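Quick note —
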Amino acid sequence: MLSSADLHLERMLFFAVLILFFGTGFLCTLIIFIINSILKKNKTGRYYIFGFLISGLIGVVLTAFYCYMILFEQAEVYMP
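Predicted structure written out below.
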């Protein structure tokens, strides 16, 4: 049976992933939109949605890789 602390940690991890996904997706989409507005390029909504999804996934994958490197790869170096 799961304790309440386990559920809160899982919820925190889920929210952290959501924040990373939407944060990187929104930031990248905003930057792309500003650049396209300055260059006066007309893009469809599908272009921005795909950019949002791809950049969000890349942000989550890079963060997971970074956490893996910090938590597991560095542990082997410091073991006596």
